[in-house]
């Protein structure tokens, strides 16, 4: 083969080789991305990333004092929506420093779920709320099947039947919204409130 | 009835706003308040409780539907007092029922119609069973203001036959 043509063959061969290598790397990048997405939508994705037993975590308010404590038997945190499910949760809101602050309040339930980055706590299953009496307010006890608590703005609400006792008065209704900061309670549904005659002891919650 | 003062007060409502700081309960929606034989109905009621535990209720009516109250009287037989007005105030301590504007109180003995009193303002003391009627909705009496009427049923047996005999002729 004459010298000129031999040179052309070798050149085109190396060119072809280089093209193959380029395509190869492109294919490799494709492979990497593809497996990345697969990993994202992986069916293991919404498995809990941590589980704590017999835990208790304290949430501070802006002023840096502890505003409420959530404890329970088992907390399972789900990274998918940054929520955590709790078994046998106990939510304790602490009395504040200012004189008007209401006394500490305790909430027990069978199950709980904290979401919306810890600004909403949903309690389900035999929810009991107790708040001890204080100089300014009467003792409060509340029983319902499910309750949604917004600890940061100190309100709680439910749409289910509620049995409530405030001091010696007992009331029940369907649906309730309570604001603990101003200590106002709205009770809905065809409800009923019983005020005992003067001096009678408080009847137990039915 | 005197025994009412030792009975619990029970209030049925559609919804209630309880303000625990001022201890005021505002009931709305077809409110029924019962305390022993005392029965009060109204569209809206505001019940406050004094520190000693006495209850004060103010029942207001929606246009057209007056607030009503009904209570058994102590005397013999089945004696009742019934009243209605646009606004009723009940003072649990001295057990005084005040009826404001277009007030009407009726005494009933069994099935017989009893005396009827109407006026702008009537206050009825359920312990002493004492009425007082004033002619302004606010409770004080000004000359020339509203008028009250009182219908007293003929009492005793002799009145009844006279009414029936003319029919015989």
From TrEMBL, chain A:
Gene Ontology cellular-component terms listed: outer membrane-bounded periplasmic space; plasma membrane
Gene3D superfamilies: Lipopolysaccharide (LPS) transport protein A like domain
KW Amino-acid biosynthesis (keyword) present: no
Keywords attached to this entry: Cell inner membrane, Cell membrane, Membrane, Transmembrane, Transmembrane helix
Gene Ontology terms for molecular function: glycolipid transfer activity; lipopolysaccharide transmembrane transporter activity
Protein name per its UniProtKB record: Lipopolysaccharide export system protein LptC
């Amino acid at each position: 083969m004459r010298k000129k043509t031999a040179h052309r063959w070798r050149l085109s061969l190396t060119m072809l080789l280089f093209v193959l290598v380029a395509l190869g790397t492109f294919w490799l990048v494709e492979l990497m991305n593809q497996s990345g997405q697969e990993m994202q939508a992986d069916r293991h994705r919404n498995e809990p990333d941590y589980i704590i037993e017999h835990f208790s975590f304290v949430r501070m308010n802006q002023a840096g004092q502890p505003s409420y404590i959530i404890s329970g038997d088992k907390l399972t945190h789900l990274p998918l929506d940054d929520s955590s499910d709790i078994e046998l949760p106990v939510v304790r809101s602490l009395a504040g420093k200012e004189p008007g602050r209401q006394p500490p309040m305790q909430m027990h339930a069978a199950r709980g779920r904290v979401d919306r980055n810890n600004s909403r706590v949903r309690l389900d299953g035999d929810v009991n709320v107790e708040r001890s009496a204080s100089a300014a307010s009467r003792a409060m006890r509340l029983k319902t099947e499910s309750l949604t608590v917004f600890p940061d703005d100190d309100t709680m609400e439910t749409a289910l039947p509620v049995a409530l006792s405030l001091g010696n008065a007992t009331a029940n209704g369907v649906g309730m919204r309570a604001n603990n900061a101003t200590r106002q309670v709205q009770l809905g549904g065809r409800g009923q409130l019983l005020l005992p005659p003067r001096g009678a002891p408080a009847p137990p919650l039915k | 009835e005197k025994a009412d003062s030792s009975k619990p007060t029970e209030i049925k409502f559609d919804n209630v706003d309880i303000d625990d700081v001022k201890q005021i309960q505002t009931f709305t929606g077809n409110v029924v308040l019962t305390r022993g034989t005392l029965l009060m109905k109204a569209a809206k009621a505001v019940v406050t409780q004094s520190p000693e535990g006495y209850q004060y209720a103010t029942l207001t009516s929606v246009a057209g539907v007056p607030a009503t109250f009904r209570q058994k009287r102590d005397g013999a037989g089945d004696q009742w007092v019934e009243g209605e007005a646009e606004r009723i105030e009940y003072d649990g301590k001295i057990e005084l029922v005040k009826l404001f504007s277009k007030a009407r109180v009726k005494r009933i003995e069994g099935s017989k119609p009893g005396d009827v009193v109407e006026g702008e303002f009537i206050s009825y003391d359920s312990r002493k069973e004492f009425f007082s009627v004033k002619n302004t909705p606010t409770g004080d009496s000004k000359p020339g203001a509203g008028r009250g009427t009182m219908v007293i049923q003929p009492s005793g047996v002799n009145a009844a036959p006279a009414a029936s005999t003319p029919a015989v002729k």
